Amino acid sequence: MAHQTDVADDPEAAALADEKVVVDGSEKKRYKSQLRALQVELVKLQRSAIDRGDKILILLEGRDAAGKDGSVKRIVEYLSPRETRVVALGRPSDRERGAWYFQRYVAHLPSLGEFVLFNRSWYNRAGVEHVLGFCSNEEHKEFMQSVPKFEEMLVNSGTTLFKYYLDICKDEQRRRLADRKHDPLKQWKTSPVDDVAIEQWNAYSEARDAMLLQTHTAIAPWHVVRADNKRAARLNLMRDILSRLHYAGKKKKLVRPDHSVVFEFKPEDLETGRLAR
């Protein structure tokens, strides 16, 4: 109430508050308009993919609270449920832990005409499992050596594979994780791992850097999405996907991504400040 009284008594403050509402409302309207236009493009893309029998696989990785769930939700919102699958695997069973590491992921790979998104993927071993000690150093090393070969087999067998890492700064991650705890609609997102995400920030940074350096290949390159701004990240992720695929009726200007938001990883990015530290 004190804040409301101050604004009401100060015409200049009230005018600034009204202006902020107008600006925020205008930005939100513009975002929704762009989002809808890109979702129309995704539907056109899927129609062409179904007709041609394309197999499209998109991996989304990133720190906790980087915006993977929200991005996936907007991408698949209007796609065909029959030809679209979102894969977000939980902890492996005892049987899966005793099998070839990639085995449980293979069952979810796309078939002809399918569009599949992995909300976290086999790269769990390069990040969470490695940092939290859920795999041995030998298992981590073996994974890092074998994953480029595995992905090369996928691509050579006709799968279109895109790999995205959503990157956020430490302050933004802390803010989002705190927001989860206080929002009753986001309680399903909270976990004991959230606190560890901040405590182990540097360890996760080192794991990210090693993953990008060792698994970025010409046939399966990494693209980084700067995700501190959720809306810009979602839109440019969608644009990048659309810009890199062929489909009938593509609006090329519409799907041109902002390369300050999404860009192909280069080793020098680890030294130039393009990735969060």
Question: Care to describe what's here?
Answer:
This protein has a six-stranded mixed sheet with strand order 2-3-1-4-5-6, sandwiched between helices. Helix 1 packs across helix 2, helix 2 (about 10-50) runs parallel beside helix 11 (about 230-245) and helix 3 packs across helix 11 (about 230-245). The longest helix has about 40 residues, at about 10-50. Mean pLDDT is about 90; it is low at about 1-25. The chain has one domain: P-loop containing nucleotide triphosphate hydrolases (Rossmann fold). The chain has twelve helices and six strands. It has about 280 residues and is α/β, with parallel strands linked by helices.
Q: How many DSSP helices? A: 12
Beta-strand percent range? 5-15%
Q: Helical residue percent?
A: 40-55%
Can you list the strand order of the major beta sheet? 2-3-1-4-5-6
Give the overall shape.
globular
SSE diagram, text form:
Blueprint: H1 2-9, H2 11-52, E1 55-62, H3 68-76, E2 84-87, H4 94-97, H5 103-106, E3 115-119, H6 128-132, H7 137-156, E4 159-167, H8 170-182, H9 193-199, H10 201-215, E5 222-226, H11 230-243, E6 262-264, H12 269-272
Parallel strand pairs: 1-3, 1-4, 2-3, 4-5
Antiparallel strand pairs: 5-6
Helix pairs in contact: 1-2, 2-11, 3-11
Features:
alpha/beta; six-stranded mixed sheet; 12 helices; 52% helix; 12% strand
Give the gist of this structure.
This protein is an alpha/beta fold. Helices cover 52% and strands 12% of the residues.
